[in-house]
Amino acid sequence: MTGPFLDMAMNGGEMGFDMEAQTAKIWDGGDVKICASSLPFIGNAVVQIIKQISTSPHRLATRLERETGTKWLIERTTVEAENKRGMEDLKNGQVLDTIQPLFYSAAWEGCGADIVGQGKHLVVGIADA
């Protein structure tokens, strides 16, 4: 989690600081630490994540088996099946049940996950890792 976007919150007054009126609303004595991130910091973090070497769910599962020393039960599915399940749950009003199938199906290749392999990172000006 990034916490609030510090620069936006400071400039917009959401953190209790009014730059124009030069007033501040201090919470709980003012010494309680907060966690916040600036938009440039978040942008740099996203770039670094995109530059990371991509992997596959199969490779991750193999690594987990090796690290834990146990055989894992693997359930196989498809993006199409998970999208269908998520949309059915959504139609039935089970909104929370849609999060995993719809979110994660978008993360697997075929739905735009391998942006480096597809050259999409160049569109936003990120050099090859």
TrEMBL record:
A molecular-function term among this protein's GO annotations: oxidoreductase activity
Query: Which InterPro entries did the record assign?
Result: NmrA/Isoflavone_reductase-like
Sorted UniProt keywords: NADP, Oxidoreductase
PANTHER family, per this entry? NMRA-LIKE DOMAIN-CONTAINING PROTEIN, NMRA-LIKE FAMILY PROTEIN
Task: Quote the protein name from its UniProt record.
Answer: NmrA-like domain-containing protein
Lineage of the source organism? Answer: Eukaryota, Fungi, Dikarya, Basidiomycota, Agaricomycotina
